[in-house]
Automatic annotation (TrEMBL):
Major location (coarse): membrane
UniProt-recorded name of the protein: Cytochrome aa3 subunit 2
Subcellular location: Membrane
Function: Subunits I and II form the functional core of the enzyme complex. Electrons originating in cytochrome c are transferred via heme a and Cu(A) to the binuclear center formed by heme a3 and Cu(B).
Family: Belongs to the cytochrome c oxidase subunit 2 family.
Pfam families associated with the record: COX2
GO terms for cellular component: membrane
Organism: Endobacterium cereale
Domain Cytochrome oxidase subunit II copper A binding: 156-270
A Gene Ontology biological process term: ATP synthesis coupled electron transport
A GO MF term: oxidoreductase activity
Catalytic activity: 4 Fe(II)-[cytochrome c] + O2 + 8 H(+)(in) = 4 Fe(III)-[cytochrome c] + 2 H2O + 4 H(+)(out)
Amino acid sequence: MKRVAGNRDHGAGILFRNLRNDRIGRFGFVFHQGSPLSRQSHGGWSWFRIFGALGLVSLLSGCSGELSALDPAGPSAASIADLWWAMLWGACALFTLVLGLFLATWFVPTFGRRLPPDRWILWGGLALPLPVLIALTLYAFTQGEFLLKGATKDTEDALQVRAIGRMWQWHFSYPTLPGSVAEAGVLHIPAGRTIEIVAESEDVIHSFWVPRLGGKIDAVPGHANRLRIRADQPGRYGGICSEYCGTGHAGMRFEVRAHDNDGFLNAVSARTGQ
């Protein structure tokens, strides 16, 4: 930088421009692979891409598995997953808009200077995010009403199951099936039929959750909470207690086995001795 005698403001202006250009140069280094500086750091850039790819693979791998809410196997879980994705894309839209404004002010110094500060607050703080937030809220209310109705219109055909939590196991029984007895750790259900879970607790607060089949519901001592789930296809689905309940909380897991109609009756008969 050259110092201009007799004009301190002019020198400060040169300093500001140099600093701004230096920041833009460093910013461009990240995205512009063909720059001389990036060619000198080719090895570091390669490692950056490798770690970025590994991070992306790790993120995508979390979208599947027996305890993934983003891999739904029933209408309730699908509704929750749809809401999650809608919220994610809405957040991405807001982030993109804000980032676009930031980059515009960074690279175009004259951008927005004609707009007074109160207008920036009004349009940038209210008018810009408000339509996205309103749309997401209305969609969330719609999905919530769908879940409250059990994610199905066939409310009369629901099979009731009692899920009793106690340190540190789940015990399941079928009040509407004659001769049924409680079984620990395994819940048998018929595929394609709505199941009404009546969650209770005998000691502390637990939380019943089968991520691929529906939402979660707390099991509170002295109170019965209800939740409806359904498995579209036969299979095995993992379930957990999602409320910390003591030293054995991590091992308080169970398995849901969804059968076809004949398989379900056979499983219940084998379990009850009928």
